[in-house]
Amino acid sequence: MKGSNQLTVRDSNERLVLHLIRRHGAMTKAEATRDTGLSPNAISMIFNALEQDGMLLRGEPMRGRIGQPSTPMRLNPDARLYVGLKIGRRGFDLVLVDFCGAVRAHVSQSHDYPTPERTVAFLRAKLGDLLEQAGVKLADIAGSGIAIPSQLWHWSGDFGALQDQMEVWRNHDIVATLAGILPGPILVENDATAACYAEWVFGARQARPDSLYFFVGTFIGGGVVLDGAVYRGCRGNAGALGPLRIPDEPGGTRLVDHASLSVLSQMLARHGKTHEALLKPPIDWAALEPVLSDWILRSARSLAHAVVSASAVIDFEEVIIDGAFPAEIRARMARLLDSRLSKLDLGGIPYPAVVQGAFGEIARAVGAAALHVNDRYMLGKEPAAL
Fold first, then answer.
1. Staple partner for 56: which of 4, 73, 83, 248, CB 3.0–4.6 Å?
2. Positions of the chain with pLDDT under 50
3. pTM for the predicted model, two decimal places
4. Cβ–Cβ < 8 Å for 142, 136
5. Do residues 93 and 26 both lie within one domain?
């Protein structure tokens, strides 16, 4: 434990206020005083300082109550701008995100497999387009984030790349490679965990403080939210959900053997449908029927077993389903998962609410940008009720 000097106390209190306003959408000084336990004078000083720094905007005064009208304060979306880069097994996504999580610009590019050289070429070709779309300059960007699969070289055979082509990633320092191209300080996170950060920091609805997040992509991963913060684990592997054991499902014993786009690709190939349709966006998802419906049902069955196993260890309040496919497919998968859970024996454990994520395909890139907001302007855990 370390003591705090006056400057770090002020920073901590400002972070607390910004965290609460982000979670609630808007707050008055009276509400912040009640929720933080700080004095009205301290809250007034924090609000005024944050407003002067351009972090907060005033809303319309709330009239009709006893005393002076209360003025709610909300986050200023223009306070900070961030760039998020997803280096994926099948493509790149580059987004420019504001302080409230709105995607101001987005560019993408598909590929057979990623390499550092292809990443550099993509950024040199597309970063200028991204900034032009948003109408901003490089100097306006406060920082950049990178979302990239862990041990990218390990799964090369599963998506058509030769091992020697992917082995370069094993000891590669991607931050050093991109430091002269991406603006501001650069943060890096596993791609599925980054998607979880997008949901927690920027999600349209309030994610519950204890949540399990699944992202279905080429493979499947996710994240764990505990006590109001994304939990990474001692080695950063929390939420690596692919290896979870799945019983009674032909085709493999792991979650990744059933709930992943690689599996959908294999199912399409077995039914004489070209799996190339999944590689070159835009994808005509309706053309993938009836195989698509079979895969969604198979994924939901497998996810239900995974949720039961996870819930036996941690009492999750909700499960969030997201993935690299349209909102209607996420909704179908979430409904089937919820229905399946209601039929399973959880041994007395209440099964969690099932909801769909907010960002879909771009969640990983948005999450890369969200890393900076989480690191600088949010708390390590949800403040306790006073």
1. 73
2. 1-5, 7, 385-386
3. 0.91
4. no
5. no
How many domains, the chain? 3
Peptide bond preceding 282 in cis form (omega within 30 of 0): yes
Burial of 70 (0-12, 13-18, 19+ CB in 10 A): middle
pLDDT at 160: 55
Q: Which residues, other chains included, contact 341 with Cβ-Cβ below 8 Å and sequence gap of 6+?
A: 304, 307, 308, 351, 352, 354
Tell me: do 144 and 177 sit in the same domain. Answer: yes
List CB contacts of 200: < 8 A, sequence separation 6 or more. Answer: 207, 211, 213, 223, 225, 229, 230, 370, 374
Q: Containing domain of residue 225, as a range? A: 205-357
CATH at 185: 3.30.420.40
Residues 234, 344 share a domain = yes
Out of 60, 76, 92, a domain closes at 76
- Of 86, 156, 112, the C-alpha closest to 361 is 86
**HEC profile for the chain?**
CCCCCHHHHHHHHHHHHHHHHHHHCCECHHHHHHHHCCCHHHHHHHHHHHHHCCCEEECCCECCCCCCCECCEEECCCCCEEEEEEECCCEEEEEEEECCCCEEEEEEEECCCCCHHHHHHHHHHHHHHHHHHHCCCHHHCCEEEEEECCCHHHHHHHHCCCHHHHHHHCCCCHHHHHCCCCCCCEEEEEHHHHHHHHHHHHCCCCCCCCEEEEEECCCEEEEEEECCEEECCCCCCCCCCCCCECCCCCCCCEHHHCCCHHHHHHHHHHCCCCHHHHCCCCCCHHHHCCHHHHHHHHHHHHHHHHHHHHHHHCCCCEEEEEECCCHHHHHHHHHHHHHHHHHCCCCCCCCCEEEECCCHHHHHHHHHHHHHHHHHHCCCCCCCCC
> What was the pLDDT predicted at 385?
44
pLDDT tens profile 281-340: 678 899 899 999 999 999 999 999 999 999 999 999 999 999 999 999 999 999 999 999
